[in-house]
């Protein structure tokens, strides 16, 4: 389906933020079919409503640990076509990787991980929701940077040139080829060549599934 009129389940324990996000999404023509405040209610709502996309925080009642993200991982497994947007203040690497693994296996619904305090405009948030519902991967650049600061031992990543790492980092942010070309001031053909080299060097040339997500997963898990 198109982006207009998406069916959305929203999970956020802050009543004011939950109502505000719901109002924004409705204003742009989407339908918040359930707005809930805890992970248990989120799971029930997604199972019942079968939405196009769910939006959740990481830390949710009752424990305020990682209930929302764990629920997203579980729901993604049960509903592989479900778009998932994690909208949070926290970078929880382990479960972010699990979501990416599910994205790699199924490659149906899109996936996003955004930090609340870095969403600079209402339209930016709505655009992310629509892109994820359309199957895209949208990861906040700050999330990518924090994950990259973790120690890497992967010999696969050592095969990449500095420019190829730049391209892969931009892919990890969810950028399309045209946006990468504009950012790096190179041609679209050059970007395609870099991505082809990345796939080859990361041993993804013969892999099944969506190569772009496989490459990003390898990069972030390195």
Could you characterize what this model shows?
It is a single chain. Helices cover 51% and strands 13% of the residues. The protein is of the alpha/beta class and 222 residues long. It has 2 domains: 7-146, Rossmann fold (3-Layer(aba) Sandwich), CATH 3.40.50.2300; 151-221, Arc Repressor Mutant, subunit A (Orthogonal Bundle), CATH 1.10.10. It has a 6-stranded parallel beta sheet with strand order 2-1-3-4-5-6, sandwiched between helices. The model has no long low-confidence stretch (mean pLDDT 83).
The CATH class designation of the largest domain is: Alpha Beta
Low-confidence stretches: none
The chain-level structural class is alpha/beta
Content of β-strand: 5-15%
Strand order of the largest sheet: 2-1-3-4-5-6
Q: Count the DSSP helices.
A: 10
Care to count the β-strands? 6
Helical content class: 40-55%
- Radius of gyration, CA atoms, in whole angstroms: 17 Å
The CA-CA distance between the termini, in Å, is 35 Å
- Second rung of CATH, namely the architecture of the largest domain: 3-Layer(aba) Sandwich
Q: How many domains in all?
A: 2
Basic shape: globular
Q: How would a crystallographer describe the biggest sheet?
A: 6 strands, parallel
CATH-defined fold name of the largest domain: Rossmann fold
Find the CATH superfamily of the largest domain: Response regulator
């Amino acid at each position: 389906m198109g982006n207009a009129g998406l069916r959305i389940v929203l999970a956020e324990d802050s009543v004011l933020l939950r109502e505000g996000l719901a109002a924004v999404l409705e204003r742009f023509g989407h339908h918040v079919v359930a707005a809930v405040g805890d992970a248990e209610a989120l799971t029930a709502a997604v199972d019942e409503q079968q939405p196009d996309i769910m939006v959740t925080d990481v830390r949710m009642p009752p424990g305020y640990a990682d209930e929302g993200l764990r629920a997203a991982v579980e729901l993604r497994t049960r509903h592989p076509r479900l778009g998932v947007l994690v909208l949070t203040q926290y970078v929880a690497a382990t479960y972010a990787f699990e979501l990416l693994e599910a994205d790699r296996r199924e490659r149906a619904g899109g996936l996003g991980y955004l930090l609340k305090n870095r969403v600079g405009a209402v339209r930016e948030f709505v655009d992310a929701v629509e892109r994820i519902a359309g199957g895209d991967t949208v990861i906040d650049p700050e999330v990518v940077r924090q994950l990259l600061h973790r120690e890497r031992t992967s010999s696969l990543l050592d095969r990449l040139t500095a420019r190829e790492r730049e391209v892969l980092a931009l892919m990890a942010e969810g950028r399309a080829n045209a946006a990468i070309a504009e950012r790096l001031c190179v041609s679209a053909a050059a970007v395609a060549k870099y991505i082809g080299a990345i796939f080859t060097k990361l041993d993804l040339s013969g892999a099944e599934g969506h190569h772009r997500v496989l490459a990003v997963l390898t990069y972030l898990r390195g």
